[in-house]
Amino acid sequence: MVAPQLAALVESGQVRVEYKQFPLNNTTSIWAVEAVECAADQGMWYAMHLHIFANQGKQQVSTNLTKQFAKDLGLDTQAFNQCVDDDKYVSAARGFQSEAQKRGITGTPAFFLNGKAIDLGTLKGWDDIPKLVEQAVNQ
Q1: Rounded to an integer, what distance in angstroms lies between the CA atom of residue 128 and that of residue 91?
Q2: What residues form DSSP beta bridges with 118?
Q3: What angle do CA 43, 48, 49 make, to 5 degrees?
Q4: Within 13 A of 79's CA, how many CA atoms are on the CB side?
Q5: What are 11-50's pLDDT values in tens digits?
């Protein structure tokens, strides 16, 4: 969900939002990214993303669990299972890890403005984002 203040900036063309996954350096994170990407092949990226987060902490993510999630979401399980079994997106997930490390990302969410990380500790709320964009535009 994007805050209304940020959505208005995106609609005006002042801001471009990119969503990038940040898998931690563990196998379960890789499986989660792989599941989301395999679901994306069927147009269900966001649904799988939400399903994984909704079930976070209930069970450790595994390939068997993500296959069950695909079934829960009504995906073509044969295609999904093949995607997972072939490790189709494992190298992409590792690339996401590498990019995050190179950019100094240590947690989520992470925000960048004109390529510079925004220290979220300095923000009081979503209302601060338009102010930061305005400052960046006027520099």
Answers
A1: 36
A2: 111
A3: 110
A4: 11
A5: 888 777 777 777 776 778 888 999 999 999 999 999 999 9
